[in-house]
Amino acid sequence: MSRWRSVWLVARREMVERGRSRGFILSVAFTTVLVVGSFVVPTLLFGDDDATKIGVVQPEPPGLSLAITTSASQLDQEIEIVPFADEAAGDAALADESVEGVAIVPADLSGPGEIRFDKEPDQFVTQLVTASVVALRTQAVVTEAGVPPADMLAAQQAPTVHALDPQTEMDDAQFLFANIGAVLILVGIFSFGFTVLTGVVEEKQSRVVEVVLSTVRPRDLLMGKVMGIGVLGLIQLAVFVAAALAAAVLTDRFGLPATTPSAVLLLVVWFVLGYALYSTALGFLGALASRMEEASNASTPVTMVAMISYFVAIFAVINDPSGPVAVVATYLPPSAPFVVPLRAAFDAIGPIEILLSIAVTVAGIWVLFNVGARVYAGAVLQTAGRMKIRDAWRSAGE
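Structure (tokenized):
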């Protein structure tokens, strides 16, 4: 039997047995529901917020309603003014919660008036109405003092707000997409990488591996297991991404950036590379153990490296995507799957750097697989307790 046929048969066995298992199907379905729900639920709860209703008892000072709505629009808030004939009507509206608050201001601005609430005062309504009343009363006093209206308007003009590097909604969406991608890569590494780990230990405990190795070489068995489970990981990733994109478009939670196709491609590439790197390490470390408890301890270094790499991506790249830490992490195989997509979201990495990072990571995977395959071959048939990497390496050479 040729080598690649052996690898394919092992990979096919993993895909068929694990892909049709109830646990895998329920995991994909449940997680997809969570992904879609993260878009749908906020839309149902907060997507159709009504305008804040503020009551104004008549007669009101000229320009009060206009001042309130104008101030609210400057804060990107929608306000609806509800006039009431008298205070009793306003109190009744407060009692049945048809308005947030009621403003009672003398028509001649002889006094500041009052703002009534049913139970707890609303700070936004309070500040909005207060600012409007103060502005009208100030304008009336200044006008009586003989100050020209044009000078009054000039004095009330607000400073111009200008951002040197403004962030658009598309920028936010692009960053969010990349951040979600980093989380999916981390989740994929842990969920499917540990599936490889547990699969190796289970086959070793049940002695199934002894039967399989009678026809398949150890390195081909490891490669096939990593490939088969990796295909299932890609299927799950494709379902998640498709569900998230569809939910984002249908709920209009945020606009998809123009770079979405390239971002999805980058996510898939780095998911494959990150999974291949970490699952290979977890696979041969699992062969060192005879029990699941030993495997958990053996996998701790890989877990720590993955978590450190993720936090480097989240904190170092976000703070300075072109800084030395981000650049160095781009060319380190353990951190590249998390760092490169985030740097690309900030437009802080060029195509040449991405290709170089991919080349370095592929080389790292190749070296790790060759080392890991030998350790796997020397340890997978040993059942006398947890082995050391050095002993497994020597055993494979005998």
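The radius of gyration is 32 Å. The beta strands are 52-57, 79-84, 101-104, 114-116.
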